[in-house]
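ESCALATION

Customer reports they have been waiting on this structure for their group meeting. Please prioritize. Original submission:
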Amino acid sequence: MADSPVPAMFAIVTTNKDAVVSGGMAPVFVAPNEVERDRVAMWMCRITNATVHDLHNGTVILTVSHS
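Update from on-call: job pushed to the front of the queue and completed.
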């Protein structure tokens, strides 16, 4: 059986700058509101072929799958 793709966190887009901690592996983009957060996530998703996951706390994460 072939190995299935493993998703990896690619980026984080959030409206909550107070929740951002330094030292993480993924770049964090802080948006001023949810409309801008969704716009940034949409364009990053289209450009990189990532998948967007809404954490329902003002933050979305983008993941990409690789083997």
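Sent to customer with the following note: The first strand starts at residue 6 and ends at 14.
Escalation resolved.
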